[in-house]
Structure formats: C-alpha cells, structure tokens
Amino acid sequence: MTEQQSAPAGGAWPAVRPEVVAEVVAGLSARLQKRLDGAAAKLAERPVRRDGDEWLIEVDEETSLVLHAPGGVVRGQADVRCGCLLAPACVHRAAAVTVCRIADADTEPEPDTEPGPDTEPEPASESGAGSGPGTAPDPVGGTPGGPRTASDAAPDDASGGSLTAAEQAAVHHLHRAAAAVLAAGVGGAGAVLQAELLRAAHRARLNGFHRPAAAAVAVVSRLRAARSGEPDHRLALLVAGLRELLDLTTTLTTTLTTTVATALTPARTAAPGTGHGDLAALRGTARQAYREAGGLRLYGLFTEPVLTATHAGVLTWAVDATGVLSTVAEVMPHADPTTAAPQAVGAGNRAVRLGDALLSHREFSRAGLAVQGATRSANGRLGAGSSVRAVRAGGVAWTADPVAGLWTEPPPVQVERALAAAALPYEGRPAGSDLLFLDVTLLGAAPHGSGGVPELLADCGGLVVALRAAHDHPGLAFRGNLALLATTPGLRLRVIGRLERAEHPQLRLLAVGTPPAGPEPGEPALALPADRAARVNLGLERLQTTDLTLGAATSTSAPVEVPSSAAGPVGPAAPAHLLARRVEQAVTGGRQGLALGAGAADTGRSELRAAGLATGAALLDALRAAAADQPRDVFGRVVADDHAAFTSAWLAAACYGEELASALCAGGWQGQDPVKAGS
C-alpha cells in the first residue's frame, strides 16, 4: 500500500512545467480568468495529501483535485485532473497550477539519457540572489530543463546570422508579454499575465531562445514570491530579472533591424558587433556544454553553503596548477525551509562526487585531487561523468603557489573584473569572477556608510572595507563568526569574499585564513588546529574563542578608531537612489502608480542635476512622462496600448542605474569621491 503523507496548508505542492501553466490558464473563459487570482488564494489554504506520485487536494466536500507529478513535477495538462462539472475548463485546475511553483532544470531529471562528454548533466544550479551561491542563489535563474526536444538539440546557428519569421514572432511575443507585466506592476500582474509570459517563454524556447526564456521563467517565479510575500523575496532581484528580460528582447528586436540593414548594405557586413557570435550569445543554450579538460591537479580552496527557497547544499572551490578556478557542487532540493540550513551544513560532510574520490567537501577544501579525463564547463563546473577518474592528493596553503597567485592582483583590478563579469550571462561567467582575494587587517565594529549601521571594518591597503556575512540565515555560521572576529581588532587575515556592489567598499566574507607573514609580538592571531590547514569556511565551521589569540594591546571594549590613511575621501553620496527608487516603484506599482508620483520625480530630477547626473535626471523625466502619457478615448478613459514608450523609458533608466551603481562601486574601491565617480 502506498504511504500517504499529510502536508500543511499551502505547502508541499509539486512543481509544474511553465508551458503547462500557460496551456491550462489559456483554456479558461474570460469570466473565469477574472476569478483566477481569488481561486488560487483560496486553494493555497486547502490541505494537501501526497500518495506516491499524486497530490490530492480537497476543494470542497464534493470536488477534489489530483496532480500527477512523477519526480515532483507536473509535466502535462492531463496530469491535472479535477472532479467538478466544468473540468477540464474549470478554474480549479488553473488555480492549482498557479499555486505550484515553476519547475526548473534542477527538478526535472532526464531519464533514459546517457550524457556525452560535451553535454554532461549539470549539478543543481547555484546561481541566484543575484550575487552568487553564498548569498541566496536562485536556481530558477538557470537554463530551462525538461526532456530534450528537437529544438533543444538543434545547434544555435541553425538559422545562420538572421532570424526566421517564426523566431521574430516569438521574440516580439515575449517582449510584449514582459512589457505588459511591467506596466501592470506586482499588484496587477496576476495569474493571467503570468501565464501569458510563460506561454511566450515556452514559444521562445521552442524557437531556440533559451536565455530569454529562462529569464522570463525567473521573472514569473520572483513575481509570485513578491505577490505572496515570501520571506526570500527581494525586490532588487525582480527588478534585475525584468531588466535582463527586456534588455534581451529589445536587443534581439534591434538585431532584426540591423540584420536587414546589413543585408541591404553589403559594405557593412564586416562591422564589429553585428555578427553571428552576438546572436548566439543572445539565444543562449539549453544546457551547459562540458569540454574535455584532460588531466587536472586540483587544490582545494574553500567550501561555501548554498541556500535558496528550494535548494540547499554546498559548493567547493578549487584551483588547478595554472591558477584556473573550478567548482564541485552538492546541492539538492528541500521541501521544508526549516530543514534547509541543516541540509546545507550536512552537505559539507558528504563525499565529493568526482570519480572515485573518497573525501568530503570540507576535506577537499583543504586537500587536493588528481583528476584524469576531466570535463569542465565555461563557468568552471567540473563534470562527474563515468569516464572521470579522481584520487585524493595533497593540498597547499593559501600562501603557497598556485593558490597564492590569486592574491597578487590589486583590489581595484579585481573589482573591475567582478563588475565586468556581472554583465555576462551566468553560464558564461568565468569561475570565481565575482570573488575577491584580499589581505586585510581588522579594525573592529563601527558605524560605516550612509546608514551608520555598525559593521565589521577592515583596512585593505589603506582602504576601509566593510566585511558582511555572505548569508544572514541564523542556521549558518556566518554571523556568529563575524561577531567573534569583531572582538579582535588588529588581527591580520587573508580573506576570500564576494563583492557587494555599493558606493563604499563592501565584501561578503566566505572564508578566512592566516596571512603570509606571521603576527608581530603582541598582535592578535588565528590559532587554528592543524586539521583546519590555517583556514576557516565561515558558513560551515564555527570559530571558537580558543581559535583566536588576543594581542597584548587588544581591547574589545575600546571604540574603534579608523586610521586617517584608511578613511578615504569623505563627501556627499551620489543620489543614485533617487533614480533607482523610481525604477523600483514602476515594478511594484506599475505604470499607473509611477504616473501618480510626478511631484517626487520632479524633486529627484533637481537633486540629480545638482549632483552632476544630468543624464539620470533626463531619464527620470522621460520615465515619468512616458508613464503619464497614456492614450484616452473621447470620454477620458484610458485606452490600452502596447506600453512600448513606457517600457523603453523604464529600460533606459534601469540600465543607466545599473551602470551608475557599477561606476560608484568601482570608484569607491579606488578611493574616489562618490559624486565624482558617478558623474
């Protein structure tokens, strides 16, 4: 007999493929589509029971829903069954797929598929919260999964350097659907608009536009998190997702015009930036390609926890003899958020899935591997195919080659590299491009930045850097370790962290170790056991007071004095937030909500001009004007349009704000005044 399990109301729902949501919602009448959001909210409160591969929901005393989800994923319309008289065109089926989370590549295994050397199945994605695995990665942001279709297997250059009529229609459809979501805002983008965006995403994927399709699915998932008030919702991620999606579709639409103009003017065919390579990058790939890397001698670097709303695990970083970074992941889905942090911490003790290696991820972070027949993706993921052979080998200290070479690059150069990599698609970013390798001296906790919130400060070559926890979950060791480190001002450390883009230098700390030179007499120092190999994985391992040797002059109660040589320039902050606030307001309140804030926009425009940001002021004015310029009929009622002008104005403001934030961040690490860096 199949064991039945009970689940809390609104929880333990299976995932559903995006095209299933689009198809089921499209089957509703206009009258039922208006009732869909309310029906979904009521259905989410109903108890759910699981019986094997079927989820059962009692809608009322006479009606029940059954979701057939092998492997936890609903893959077709026929897998959603309802017992009411209106089925299959009933609101219950549409409400059910609306409540279910959107399936991604990590939840859709490929049975009966033997991967080749160039197409190994990638481990669970660690991409996310827009800033990497240690900061709430977002597996939804990866490439779409599911059984491979003919379009998935087709090469990206099937249509050469131009697009077919079907591909052009798919791009325009996706752009219009994304523009409609933006104009409606979080409050107005209900289940119907979400389903239309998913339908456009599926159409784009079938036409080979995998990257825009994945971006659209990510937008829907983040939009649902915003509407339901999920704790892991971040408005910045939703704004970034919409900006990426609209930027991709706008660029593809521009590519169509450029391609036609190039065909009419043969002399321009060799112009840079208009070739097939750009179109292939815009299309993206269905799955990451793994290339032969031959024999590799890997040296463990550190291990960080991966924790998202749906997945948990660890990611271990290693460097080969040439200084190239690689990663090995152990990330699995979780059904209960309360068990996610323990799952991530426990994953550190699981064996590395690479050949016959018999060591855990924590051990690998301090040891090494000798690998034969290795395969590696463009972003550094190591493949775990059956042809890979690996045995345990010795590791090296952070102060010895080839690991020590990571710290030789000047911090401003590392920051420029990280900011440049952030503009690339996730699957194409070089491994570790967002990591910084710094030598610092702790200053202690003190108010810092415009908010004056106490933070752990460190001196990095005369520059004050705020060290922050890579993840704020209390079940991880980050916050406790930083609190302990804050009690030892003067402690010199070699650190690894992820760049936090801000006007003032900030780093999300991932691992710490001993510096190349030992402490001077009377200075505090790390006193780690021998098995720690002079390094600590801050998210998985908790520092103890015995691990720190306090110096003779160390005082935990004295106020922190920031040296004048490390304070950097003091000046007014660039008012970049004024433009960012209006960009975010458009996402939350939609076009109509932004049109109502004309007075605030006028004030922001004046402040931007006073700070020398004339372009930002002009873009803010154009955004407000586009939001308010809505066509009306003879009775003064708003007439629906395609929101083209508003979408273009919002995208221009969002992209400018992104570039401005990057410029301010780079200027902060170079010790520049924030206003001068942004102007």
Distance between the termini: 70 Å
The share of residues in extended strands comes to: 15-25%
- How many helices in DSSP terms? 19
Read across the widest sheet, the strand sequence of neighbours is 1-3-4-5-7
Over all CA atoms, what is the radius of gyration?
26 Å
Backbone shape: globular
Average residue pLDDT: 82
Number of strands: 21
Q: Helix share of residues?
A: 25-40%
Poorly predicted regions: 1-11, 106-160, 258-277, 564-571
Largest sheet: 5 strands, antiparallel
Main structural class: alpha+beta
Topology:
Layout lengths: L3 E4 L7 E2 L1 H9 L3 H14 L4 E4 L2 E5 L5 E5 L4 E2 L5 E3 L8 H9 L1 E2 L47 H4 L11 H24 L2 H16 L3 H19 L6 H30 L11 H8 L6 E18 L3 E9 L5 E9 L6 H8 L13 H4 L3 E10 L11 E5 L17 H12 L12 E14 L4 E8 L2 E7 L8 H8 L6 E9 L5 E8 L11 E2 L8 E3 L10 E2 L14 H4 L8 H20 L2 H13 L3 H15 L15 H26 L4 H5 L1
Helix pairs in contact: 1-3, 1-6, 2-3, 5-6, 5-7, 5-8, 5-15, 6-7, 7-8, 8-15, 8-18, 12-18, 15-16, 15-17, 15-18, 16-17, 17-18
Overview of this structure, please?
Helices cover 37% and strands 19% of the residues. It has 19 helices and 21 strands. A hairpin with a 3-residue loop joins strand 9 and strand 10. The protein is globular and about 85 Å long. The chain starts with a strand and ends with a helix.
